Amino acid sequence: MTTKSRRDRLRELIQTRGFAALGELAETLEVSESTIRRDLEELEKAGDARRTHGGVFWTGKTATMRVFGNRRDTMWPAKSAIGLVAAELIDDHDTILLDGGSTTYELARHLVKRPLQVVTNSLPVAHLLSSSESIDLIMIGGCVRGRTAVAIGPMADSMLHTLNVGKAFLSVAGINERGYFNSDMMLVESEKAMIAAADQSIVVTDSSKFGKVSLSRLCGLNEVNAVVTDSGIDSEWKERLETSGVGLVLANPSGRNEQDASRTGLNVAGRNDLGVNDMDTKQQS
To answer: What is the pLDDT along the chain (285 residues), one digit of tens a residue?
Structure first.
């Protein structure tokens, strides 16, 4: 790869993501972090990027919706790892549903070039995937929440009742012994319709959400097939999910993942080259 083509690719990656970690960029482009730093100096001179501790923000003209740009937090590395592992639960040509959470957006980033049929109520996810020629995209309509840019409400629910998908990936604001919660009552009603439309429902959430509760209850612990979270989850919650019969997939930002699909029946066979084991086995960290 020439210097120009590498820098063009770097510009594209940062523009698409809004923010990217230096290590992630170096790994994607297969160069050293020092090379990435030199390339970023040129982007900064052009006014297209601004470096910060551990990463870089896009500051040029935007080609994507940056709804999550002001929501970067200490859990973002975990969300990114969860998104990567969750993508391995999806087979090519699957029909899937993605809701509008920040973790499902991270999942969507890993699906851009995949041959899939994707249903979503998220404007950022739809915008991200709309440029992919390999994806058949179906957008759920309805009332759009400005803060989260998701379509919810009676129109969305009505459309969801007419659909069937293989797997639905849902984000939540809290999980306790009573189940899964979100802060928006209308969103929860739409997510209930998503669960009803799916053969399998999978919660994607970082470990900070465990032990928390929010305004509206989505469903009980055992009413989803699997939870994909990061390795920060404590042993008590691992045991509680296992007792509830929920498959557990752990994403480790360092690259080693633990899975227990005693209930999911999800299949990632053939994707072990990316460090994800078959879902019928459990690897101890």
So the answer is: 789 889 888 988 887 777 788 888 988 899 998 999 999 998 888 888 888 776 787 776 555 455 555 455 678 789 989 999 999 999 999 999 999 988 999 999 899 889 999 999 999 899 888 878 899 999 999 999 877 889 999 999 999 999 999 999 999 999 999 999 999 999 999 999 999 999 999 999 999 999 999 999 999 999 999 999 999 999 999 999 999 999 999 998 765 555 554 444 454 333 333 333 333 333 333
211: left (phi over 0), alpha (psi -120 to 50) or beta: left
Q: Between the CA of residue 136 and those of 107, 113, 212, what are the distances in Å?
A: 16, 11, 36
Interatomic CA distance for residues 88 and 44, integer angstroms = 35
45 vs 173: CA distance, rounded Å? 40
Q: Which residues contact 155 (CB under 8 A, 6 or more apart)?
A: 141, 142, 143
Separation CA 163–CA 120 (nearest Å) = 12
Residue 87 phi, psi dihedral angles, 5° rounding: -60, -30
94: which 2 tokens? Answer: 């699957």
Bridge partners of 169, per DSSP, are 98, 202
Query: Is the distance from CB of 49 to CB of 58 less than 8 angstroms?
Result: yes
Q: Give the closest residue to 25 by CA, choosing from 2, 47, 57.
A: 57
